UniProtKB/TrEMBL annotation:
Protein name from the UniProt record: Deferrochelatase
A Pfam family it matches: Dyp_perox_C
Cofactor(s) required for function per UniProt: heme b
Ranges for domain Dyp-type peroxidase N-terminal: 82-226
Family the UniProt entry places it in: Belongs to the DyP-type peroxidase family.
Protein's organism: Streptomyces kebangsaanensis
Primary localisation category: other
Known EC number: 1.11.1.-
Organism phylogeny: Bacteria, Bacillati, Actinomycetota, Actinomycetes, Kitasatosporales
Localization: Cell envelope
Reactions catalysed, as given in the entry: heme b + 2 H(+) = protoporphyrin IX + Fe(2+)
UniProt cofactor note: Binds 1 heme b (iron(II)-protoporphyrin IX) group non-covalently per subunit.
Cross-referenced InterPro entries: Dimeric_a/b-barrel, Dyp_perox_C, Dyp_perox_N, Dyp_peroxidase, EfeB/EfeN, TAT_signal
Keywords: Heme, Iron, Lyase, Metal-binding, Oxidoreductase, Peroxidase, Signal
């Protein structure tokens, strides 16, 4: 975890208005979008049903509520960058890594990325999957669905593309706080799914898993969540499962050096990574039983910020610059020297910065009642050797928070730039 904030909205747009639906006894057109089936404000509400391979509908009671703005929000699949990087945090997320099947290589990878890209484009538009749709999300809009694809270090060996593997994708160094499960780390391919509706997110997860077919097998999969949009009286930085405001100093797209920190430049190396980014993924377990035994004052000293509003202990509001030199009446630093927020500040790490876009997770309780819960940490940077690595090394040496968390899984993935119209993600690598 680092002291950085939620990204601003940059890609999300409301779904366009669609014509009123046909009369209730008219059959639905195959492949019609979920938004069209629901109609617009003032149109007759619809209830969906399935009969064989056809999709039918019947009239709902008069005055049925149309899609809310939450369900109608749509993110574009095609663009300069892949979706799911600068978009606002979503309420539900799934992370899944695949390994190419035995005997599968570049040819199979091309076909798989074509399928995945086509399916992601349809689902993000609020339409059913191209084939074998499960019907899970038939009565929902796009709900800000995003799907993001990345390549792991091992992918390039499997596809005979070693010469195209970026140096920035070299394995991360070992950290003293790591207790990594190799079975839940790394992978040839990585997919990030986010949406503001749990069924929409699961629908995408299932569709992409089915699309993998015999070309790739699941290596690991993790589920996460965030606060739902509109759950607070006004927009605010989210909280993590420790109850702390988490992410106050995240780089923002409006910052003049944002692209430089987060994205590979258009003339960068290798050429296929232009406008792409590198994602570090860490499953960080929070030792909540130990954390919750601490007094409020001690918790705030560990983080370096007030729990109530995220303001620095040196005073002000959440966005007030932290005064690292301020001392109390006893002469001690108000923000302790090992406070998490102090250690992670970019100006304390040679300017190293990364865009954090995490999900919380909870995977049940142990036999002793200990919660298996924490953070699915995802950070984006133009180069992990200048972003994640120097900050994590410093945290490794003296972060007060380290005794209350445990890094249990890790991965690093090269996420190429967005696909242009008519392209699939990764085409410039696989066909370049």
């Amino acid at each position: 975890m680092t002291d950085q904030s939620t990204p601003e909205a940059t890609r999300r747009t409301p779904a366009p208005a669609v014509p009123a639906p046909k009369a209730p006894d008219a059959p639905a057109r195959a492949g019609v979008s979920r938004r069209q089936l629901l109609g617009t404000a003032g149109a007759t509400g619809l209830v969906l049903g399935a009969a064989g391979a056809a999709v039918g509908y019947t009239a709902a009671p008069a005055g049925a509520t149309p899609l809310t703005s939450l369900g109608a929000d749509r993110t574009m699949f095609h663009g300069k960058h892949q979706p799911g990087i600068t978009d606002p945090l979503q309420a539900r997320g799934h992370l899944i890594a695949f390994d190419l099947a035995v005997g599968a290589g570049r040819k199979e990878a091309v076909a798989l990325l074509r399928r995945w890209s086509a399916t992601a484009e349809r689902l993000m538009a609020g339409e059913p999957a191209g084939h074998d749709d499960t019907g899970v999300a038939l009565d929902a809009g796009p709900s800000s669905l995003t799907v993001t694809f990345g390549f792991g270090h091992s992918f390039f060996n499997r596809t005979s593309l070693r010469e195209q593997r970026p140096g920035a994708l070299d394995p991360l160094p070992d950290f003293s706080s790591d207790q990594l499960d190799k079975a839940r780390s790394n992978g040839d391919l990585w997919v990030q799914i986010g949406a503001n509706d749990a069924l929409v997110a699961f629908h995408a997860l299932r569709a992409l898993q089915k699309d993998a077919g015999g070309a790739a097998r699941i290596r690991w999969q993790m589920n996460g969540f965030n606060r739902s949009p509109g759950a607070t009286a006004h927009p605010m930085t989210t909280r993590n499962l420790m109850g702390q405001v988490d992410g106050t100093r995240n780089p923002k797209p409006a910052d003049p050096d944002f692209d430089q920190r987060v994205f590979v430049p258009a003339n960068g190396e290798p050429a296929w990574m232009a406008n792409g980014s590198y994602a570090v993924v860490r499953r960080i377990r929070m030792l909540l039983d130990d954390w919750e035994k601490l007094s409020l004052a001690r918790q705030e000293d560990v983080i370096g910020r007030r729990k109530s509003d995220g303001a620095p202990l040196s005073g002000g509001t959440e966005t007030t610059a932290m005064d690292l030199e301020k001392t109390g009446k006893d002469g001690s630093l108000v923000v302790p020297v090992n406070a998490h927020a102090r250690i992670t500040r970019p100006d304390q790490n040679g300017g190293a910065a990364m865009l954090r876009r995490p999900f919380s997770y909870h995977d049940g309780f142990g036999a002793d009642g200990t919660p298996d819960a924490g953070l699915l940490f995802i950070c984006w940077q133009a180069d992990p050797l200048r972003g994640f690595v120097p900050v994590q090394r410093k945290l490794d040496r003296g972060d007060a928070l380290s005794q209350y968390i445990r890094h249990e899984a890790s991965g690093l993935f090269a996420v190429p730039g967005g696909a242009a119209e008519g392209e699939y993600v990764g085409q410039r690598l696989l066909e370049g």
